[in-house]
Amino acid sequence: MKILRNLTLASFLLTAIVALARPADKGYITVDANPRTVSVFVDGRYLGPASDSRHSNKYELPIGPHVVRLTQDGYQESTQHIYVTPGHVTTLAIVLGHN
């Protein structure tokens, strides 16, 4: 019985270690923008506003290269090329100029 319990515990620990050792297949972006309400598009798809009332929104993306476009009525559009890395947050700091 003790051997079975030890094998079960060892199996559980090995599964947890393997799960933690796997590289993440996603990364994240945040946009620190002025104005804070700019619309965020990634690879042509609308993700949402750059921030809510106080905090930047964090969006999950697949790893690899992406094109981020920021728009807001009355402001110049901004396009940025980024590379999202596994498990990390890429932060864009952008100030849009007035039209």
Mean pLDDT: 87
Query: Strand order of the main beta sheet, please?
Result: 3-2-5-6
Give the biggest beta sheet.
Answer: 4 strands, antiparallel
Q: Report, as a whole number of angstroms, the end-to-end distance.
A: 75 Å
Instruction: Compute the CA-based radius of gyration.
Output: 20 Å
Give the low-pLDDT segments: none
The quaternary state of the protein chains shown equals single chain
Q: Which class best fits the helix and strand makeup? A: alpha+beta
Spell out the CATH superfamily: Carboxypeptidase-like, regulatory domain
Strand percentage: over 45%
Helix-strand string: HEEEEEEE
Q: Please tally the β strands and state the result.
A: 7
CATH architecture: Sandwich
Specify the helix fraction band.
Answer: 10-25%
How many separate domains make up the residues? 1
**Number of helical segments?**
1
Taken from the alpha-carbon principal axes, the silhouette is elongated
Would you give the CATH topology? Immunoglobulin-like
Kindly list the characteristics that best describe this protein.
single chain, 99 residues, alpha+beta, Immunoglobulin-like, four-stranded antiparallel sheet, three-stranded mixed sheet, 7 strands, 20% helix, 45% strand, elongated
